[in-house]
């Protein structure tokens, strides 16, 4: 189940980066004249695992997609919906937006964008699992509840849309969540802690393999 979530994130990131790449090369000529130079590039280079060239590319792409330099949740949802025209990606985009908007001001800045990407794409296995845990732990109280998991699972099914074959039954997301808890909730107290989460993930070869796929995205 975490493999499913990671798989979708991976596909999203690949598509988004691919689109950004295409758009930025289309406008390369204009951009070279505008000559955007992000402030604090050196600082970001220290704070993330991206090189200066990679940061410049990401910055141009980000600016190109959102010239104001910040993305609010509606813009984020719009960008997302282009990748999932057959389904409703708004709830999933909402969860992802919240995970990236670390200062909770309702806007995604370039700094937040690259900080998140750096953790997911270049972080250690612990960084990635930690990021994933906080993604699921929606209210940030340190525990993943069945309800939090179910909301994310449902949003993934909504995003996949109604053309999935065979059609998704209503109880399928709940069954996924039950399986997740059987595996992760080691002390059977009904919630999953970061320790339980990381330990269970590290013992699961499928999860580890899907985590390693992030190495080749960008
Ligand atoms: Ca923010
Ligand atoms: Ca929680
Ligand atoms: Ca537990």
TrEMBL record:
This protein's GO CC annotations: voltage-gated potassium channel complex
GO BP terms in the entry: regulation of potassium ion transmembrane transport
Keywords: Calcium, Lipoprotein, Metal-binding, Myristate, Repeat
Classification via InterPro entries: EF-hand-dom_pair, EF_Hand_1_Ca_BS, EF_hand_dom, Recoverin
Domain spans labelled EF-hand: 88-123, 124-159, 172-207
UniProt-listed CDD domains: EFh
Record's keyword annotation contains Metal-binding: yes
SUPFAM superfamilies hit by this protein: EF-hand
Gene Ontology molecular functions: calcium ion binding; potassium channel regulator activity
Job of this protein: May be involved in the calcium-dependent regulation of rhodopsin phosphorylation. Binds three calcium ions.
PANTHER family: CALCIUM BINDING PROTEINS, KV CHANNEL-INTERACTING PROTEIN 2
Protein family: Belongs to the recoverin family.
Name of the protein: EF-hand domain-containing protein
């Amino acid at each position: 189940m975490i493999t499913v979530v990671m798989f979708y994130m991976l596909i999203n990131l690949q598509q988004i980066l691919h689109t950004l790449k295409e758009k930025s090369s289309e406008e390369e000529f204009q951009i070279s004249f505008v000559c955007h130079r992000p402030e604090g590039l050196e600082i970001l280079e220290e704070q993330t695992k991206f090189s200066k060239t990679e940061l410049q590319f990401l910055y141009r792409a980000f600016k190109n997609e959102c010239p104001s330099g910040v993305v609010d949740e509606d813009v984020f949802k719009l960008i997302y919906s282009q990748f999932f025209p057959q389904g409703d990606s708004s709830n999933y985009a909402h969860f992802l937006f919240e995970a990236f908007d670390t200062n909770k001001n309702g806007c995604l800045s370039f700094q937040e964008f690259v900080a998140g990407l750096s953790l997911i794409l270049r972080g250690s296995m612990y960084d990635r699992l930690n990021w994933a845990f906080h993604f699921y732990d929606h209210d940030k109280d340190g525990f993943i509840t069945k309800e939090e998991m179910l909301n994310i699972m449902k949003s993934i099914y909504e995003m996949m849309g109604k053309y999935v074959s065979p059609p998704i039954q209503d109880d399928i997301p709940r069954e996924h969540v039950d399986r997740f808890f059987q595996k992760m909730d080691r002390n059977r107290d009904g919630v999953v802690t970061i320790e339980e989460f990381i330990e269970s993930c590290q013992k699961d070869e499928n999860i580890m393999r899907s985590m390693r796929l992030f190495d080749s995205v960008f």
